[in-house]
Design goal:
Elements (H helix, E strand, L loop, with lengths): L6 H26 L5 E4 L2 E3 L1 H17 L4 E4 L21 H4 L15 E9 L1 H6 L6 E8 L2 E13 L7 E8 L3 E3 L11 E4 L6 H8 L5 E4 L3 H9 L5 E4 L6 H13 L3 E3 L20 E4 L2 H10 L2 H8 L2
Parallel strand pairs: 3-4, 9-10, 9-11
Antiparallel strand pairs: 1-2, 4-5, 5-6, 6-7, 7-8, 11-13, 12-13
Helix pairs in contact: 1-2, 6-7
The chain binds adenosine monophosphate and magnesium ion (2 copies).
């Protein structure tokens, strides 16, 4: 690959390719039927697909970008660097390689970058057979801010092309998004939220929205896709359950498409390597700043205080 391509563009192109490879691992584990489910914490699961997909992504990216700090969701009991050659992916997506480099990111070095990897977002849904909710997330942050990202859907059915399963959506600050066709928001207020991690505070934040419909789907990646594809306009999750690897890629892509993702108080998360993993003050995302502001103003102060003081 030509090194004349700017670092951030090369890294995004490599991430698109390796996310597709990880998606194949996710499908292969399911076809084999030996999921190897481990309960990491209450309502928090890991399968062989989460472990293997992460090994593939981290080994492939760190082989090419040795000085980038790559943080993955899973603690792999097996040796992280020990992957079969079939998993090592050093391809780079040709279309993404042709993108322009955002002016702000022209001089960056590997040391300035933190990559957040969720090898399988929506593990509950994966184990329960809601396969279309499953995504592979690779988020790229520079100086604590998400600037680029990839959401790969291993089970996306490509209409008219029976043999090609899966698709990969990307976003790059200042440049835009690709891999799909963005759609305008629905005419009425449709909110998307968790399918499997609700609680009374999460429900209270939904009740106050005055929405015409609530779309309960799995994964932070799939929920942000609902926003990008015009199926919902706001994503509300008043819970500390999401982590940095859940929101980094979706936030980068949503922002590149003109949307906004913050916590429930309207503050941006920071994505430096030393930041705490949990997004303690929840997630509030919308397709544009006006809808984000509407939702932010609807959430009662006492609910905001409750999450902030947890
Ligand atoms: P959900 O919206 O419930 O599909 O969750 C989005 C992401 O946040 C997934 O990676 C979940 O595993 C994670 N998450 C959300 N709530 C919790 C929770 N209570 N415990 C563990 N993980 C959670
Ligand atoms: Mg996740
Ligand atoms: Mg995960």
């Amino acid at each position: 690959m030509s090194t004349s391509v700017p670092l951030i563009v090369r890294l995004l192109a490599s991430s698109v390719s390796v996310a597709g490879r990880a998606g194949k691992i996710v499908r292969d584990v399911m076809s084999k039927g030996e999921l190897g489910i481990v309960e990491k914490a209450k309502d928090d699961y890991q399968t062989e697909a989460d472990r293997s997909a992460q090994r593939c992504i981290i080994a492939s990216l760190s082989a090419q970008y040795p000085k980038i700090n790559i943080i993955g969701e899973e603690d792999n009991p097996d040796n992280e660097g020990d992957v079969c050659s079939d998993w090592l992916t050093i391809d780079a997506d040709k279309e993404v390689l042709r993108l322009e480099c955002p002016s702000e990111l022209q001089g960056i070095k590997e040391e300035d970058i933190v990559v957040w990897v969720d090898p399988l977002d929506g593990t509950s849904e994966y184990t329960q057979g809601f396969l279309e909710h499953v995504t592979v997330l690779i988020g790229i942050s520079v100086n604590e801010k998400p600037v680029a990202g990839v959401i790969h859907q291993p089970y996306y059915k490509n209409v008219g092309s029976e043999n090609k399963t899966g698709r990969t959506i990307w976003g790059l600050q200042e440049i835009g998004v690709g891999g799909f066709t963005p759609a305008p928001p629905p005419n009425s207020l449709i909110i998307t939220t968790t399918r499997s991690h609700s609680n009374p505070v999460v429900e209270k934040a939904l009740q106050v929205m005055n929405a015409s419909q609530i779309l309960r789907v799995g994964g932070a990646g799939f929920k942000v896709l609902q926003l990008l594809e015009g199926k919902a306009s706001v994503y509300v999750f008043a819970s500390p359950g999401c982590k940095k690897w859940d929101t980094c890629a979706p936030e980068a892509i949503l922002s590149a498409a003109g949307g906004k993702l913050t916590d429930i108080l309207g503050h941006n998360y920071k994505y430096g390597a030393t930041e705490s993993r949990p997004n303690k003050t929840g997630v509030l995302a919308a397709v544009n700043a006006d809808l984000h502001n509407y939702a932010l103003n609807r959430i009662p102060q006492e609910l905001k205080d409750k999450l902030a003081n947890k």
